[in-house]
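Give me the fold.
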Amino acid sequence: MSENHFKFSTSVIALPFLFVLLLWVVFWAGIKFNLDIEELGIYPRTFVGLLGVLFSPFIHGNIEHLYNNSIPLLILLVALRYFYREQSNRVLGYGILMSGFLTWIIGRESYHIGASGLVYVLVSFIFLKELEQNITD
């Protein structure tokens, strides 16, 4: 293993923090301006529900929901950015799209909001990537 693989940069902390901060800003804006942003969530098998594929990870129903997504997201995004810096943006982008689209396909007829799908994608990626590296070593 090369030492270059473990170089720390400020983006390891800053980018995950900014991503999670964005979740909190969206939540605050929804409350402050009395917005009904839950309707921007994923509504399965409808054309308008496809917008939620992009927006749903940033929308949370209450403070507990937001908190329960924020802590694991922050930890997992830091780990992703630290260990897989080159792949982190693709994993994040495809993770949002794929988890959202899968929810759009198989979800029940209701609005789906939150970043839980992204949390599962990040856990799966990190686990499977480490498993792959251990098998090939």
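The chain has a mean pLDDT of 94.
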